[in-house]
Structures are given as C-alpha cells and as structure tokens.
Q: What sequence folds into this?
C-alpha cells in the first residue's frame, strides 16, 4: 500500500477494513501483513490518498 503525502490521518480507511489491518498513528498509517489487497480502503478514502502497490 502506498500512502500519499496528502493523507489527513482521518481513519476512514481503517474503519472499512474487514480484516482490521490499518492502524492510524498521528502521522503514519501502519498496514499489517494480514492485508489481502482487497482495495476497499482505497475506494473509501475521501482524499484518494491510498494506492495499491503493483
Ligand atoms: S481515509 Fe485516506 S486520508 Fe483518511 S487516514 Fe485513510 S488514507 Fe488517510
Ligand atoms: S486492502 Fe483490504 S485488507 Fe488491505 S488494508 Fe485495505 S481494506 Fe484492509
């Protein structure tokens, strides 16, 4: 997962992850290894700040 500079750390993406993979820190997102690249969080971000790595 690539987190763009304009992420506001609002936590919306963490709220939609069914596997609970995203931890929102003050100035960072921590994505756990449980992530299955489903892309739901990418679509949920209001700022388009997430991108799945190829
Ligand atoms: S929803 Fe978008 S802006 Fe909010 S914490 Fe997640 S990546 Fe950042
Ligand atoms: S891609 Fe899917 S599993 Fe991975 S962090 Fe986003 S919502 Fe969770």
A:
């Amino acid at each position: 997962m690539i987190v763009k500079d304009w992420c506001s750390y609002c936590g919306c993406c963490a709220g939609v992850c069914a596997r609970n993979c995203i931890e929102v820190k003050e100035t960072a997102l921590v994505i756990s290894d449980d992530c299955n690249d489903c892309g739901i969080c990418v679509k949920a971000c209001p700022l388009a700040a997430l991108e799945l790595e190829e």
